[in-house]
Amino acid sequence: MLVAGSALGFAARKTYRLLASGALTLDIDVGRRLQPLGPLLQTIRAPQEVVFDVIAAPYLGKTPRALADKLQVWERGGDMVLAAHFTPVKCGITTTLETVRFQRPNRIDFRLVRGPVPHLVESFLLTANDAGTELLWQGELGTDLGAIGQWWGGRVARAWTRAVGTSLHELAAEAERRAHSGDDALESTR
C-alpha cells in the first residue's frame, strides 16, 4: 500500500512538472472551461510606432543575445512568427510555443500552440494618445476536465498575468528610453 501511494505521489508530481513546464499539454476538449486574462493597461510615454517596434523587433528581426534565454524564433514570416518563450516559474522554466501575428501599428496577437494549457489567445492593443501610447493586454485561457482544469487554469492565469505584467514594464522602459534618446538626438542637432 505504501509503495502504491509513493508511486502515485511520484506520478502526480511528475505530471505536474510536465504540465507546468509546457512539455505536456492535455487537449482533449472535454469539460472545456474558458476564463479571461487581464485586462492590463500600461501607459507608455513613447509614440505608438516606437512601442510597436520595441515589441516586434526581437521577433521580426534578429533576436538579441540578451533575450536568448527568454525567446527563440523558430520560423519568421512577413507578419507572423512561430516562437518559443521561456518563463521562470516556481518549479522551473515553462516553455510555450506560440504564433505571433503583427498588425502594424496597433495590434499584436499571440496564439498558444503548445504549453501548460490547451487554449490561450492574447493581444497587445496599442492606441496613441496625448501621453504617448496606451498598451492594453487581454486574452482568454481555456482548460479541459471541468473543475480540475479550472483549478489548473487559475494557477496558470496568475503566473501568466505576472509574467506579462513584468514584460509590459520592461518594454515600457525600453520604449521610453528609445523615445527620449531619440528626442535628445533631435535636440542636439537643432
Question: How would you describe this structure to a colleague?
Answer:
It is a single chain. The protein has 190 residues and is of the alpha+beta class. The chain is 41% helix and 37% strand. It contains 3 helices and 7 strands, in the order αβαββββββα. The protein has a 7-stranded antiparallel β-sheet with strand order 1-7-6-5-4-3-2. It is elongated and about 70 Å long.
Please outline the helices and strands.
Layout: H1 2-21, E1 33-44, H2 48-60, E2 71-76, E3 80-89, E4 92-103, E5 107-114, E6 119-129, E7 132-143, H3 146-189
Helix pairs in contact: 2-3
What's the gist of this structure?
The chain is of the alpha+beta class and 190 residues long.
Labels describing this entry:
190 residues, single chain, seven-stranded antiparallel β-sheet, 41% helix, alpha+beta, 3 helices
Structure classification: alpha+beta
What's the mean pLDDT score? 90
Query: Main β-sheet: number of strands, strand sense, barrel status?
Result: 7 strands, antiparallel
DSSP strand tally: 7
Instruction: Please give the order of strands in the largest beta sheet.
Output: 1-7-6-5-4-3-2
Can you write the helix and strand succession as a string? HEHEEEEEEH
User: What is the C-alpha radius of gyration, as a whole number of Å?
Assistant: 19 Å
The best one-word shape is elongated
Q: Helical content, roughly?
A: 40-55%
Number of helices: 3
Strand content: 35-45%
Given as residue ranges, the uncertain stretches (5+ residues, pLDDT < 50) are: 184-190
Alpha-carbon distance between the two ends = 81 Å
Oligomer: single chain
